[in-house]
Amino acid sequence: MQIILKEDIPCRLMFGNLYIYPNLIKMKTFICHSGGAQGADFYFQEIGKNYHVKTINYSYKTKHHHSDNKKELTQNEFLEGCKMVEKTNQTLQRFRYQRMINLLARNWFQVKNSDEIFAIGSIKKQDGLQFVKGGTGWAVQMAIDSNKSVYVFDQNEIRWYYWNFDQNEFLVYEAEPRISSYNFAGIGTRKLNLFGIQAIENLYYNSFKNRNMRILYLHGLESKLSPEKRLILEEFGEVITPDLDYFTDENCISLVYEKYKNEDFNVIIGSSMGGFAGFYLSQLMQKPSFLFNPALKERPIVQEIPNGEFQKTKITILLGAKDDVVPNEKTLSFLETYKTDSQISILFNHEMAHGVPISVFKNELSTYLRNL
């Protein structure tokens, strides 16, 4: 058995300072703010449909703009956009842009209504400054001036950059970016190449790949999955929650196994008594599991462990340091002598007791499920 005590990773696990992962909401509410042009705009919209992302395409009296989800700016909005174009040009210092003012003004609303910007184009250096070429550069600079997160895929260099506000320049983004805000801008050059298309596909895939899961949730001895926690899990897919009567049926775990052993689940989640059940079902069904304060060593009632072949899997256990119902030392004592080929990772939250607060449930499971 390989047990990993997560004491050597960031203090979120050891001191209760849980890293707050960007809010994740139901896929259908993600909105891509774009321009409806050919090239990058088109692919952000079309590929986004595969992930149920809605696109809003801004326009102002654009004769050839016939895209879906078109939003025509009002006169006042257009004038607001014009002011932002002039402000942005204080940095860009471009000429002969007035003939494109209707397109440039609409760029402001792509930025204004977004929390982060993803752009496809190319980055150019000139006179000690960095900027994105073409019309995309206007929206990118507007976003920088508005202190918003900006990611640019340079399709000539085939790599992502991000704007570093401390160094005031684009730096290489070593990882694959992910969409973390439900309002984002997906924009870019009309002259999109195959690398640019692939970058958009990868961005969507990496952001939403784990949102069609089947999750088996096992509740505790005297608790059920609350509506609030169910909503958190449903952000990632279908949630199956069998109603288990631990008090009157000592074969509850066996019944769950027999009912669901041939079904396709991505993960098992359990809490307390449900964590005990999930510990063994995870190995019987060879599925990864995330368990909150599992009652592994002892329980107030009898529950039989199902017969079957235990298989190698990955089990993650989150222990609340203030848990006086299922003390940590008993869980750790049990695991020290438990023989298995599975990898068991143990996380700690020094502020959590036996119950799991909504904030901990959301933050820990959002991170775990997204990276599963």
Walkthrough of the structure:
By secondary structure, this protein is of the alpha/beta class. The protein is built from 10 helices and 17 strands. It has an 8-stranded mixed sheet, sandwiched between helices. A 7-stranded parallel sheet has the order 1-17-16-15-14-12-13, sandwiched between helices. Strand 12 (213-218), helix 6 and strand 13 form a beta-alpha-beta unit. The longest helix has 18 residues, at 75-92. The chain is elongated. It starts with a strand and ends with a helix.
According to DSSP, the number of beta strands is: 17
The helicity comes to 25-40%
Q: Which structural class fits the helix and strand makeup? A: alpha/beta
Mean of residue pLDDT?
88
Estimated share of beta-strand residues: 15-25%
Strand order across the largest sheet: 4-3-2-11-5-8-9-10
**Rg from alpha-carbon coordinates:** 25 Å
**Helix/strand order, N-terminal first:** EEHEEHHEEEHEEEEHEHEHEHEEHEH
Number of helices: 10
Low-confidence segments: 7-28
Distance between the termini: 20 Å
Principal-axis shape equals elongated
What are the salient characteristics of this protein?
8-stranded mixed β-sheet
Task: Briefly characterize the structure.
By secondary structure, this protein is an alpha/beta fold. Helices cover 32% and strands 23% of the residues.
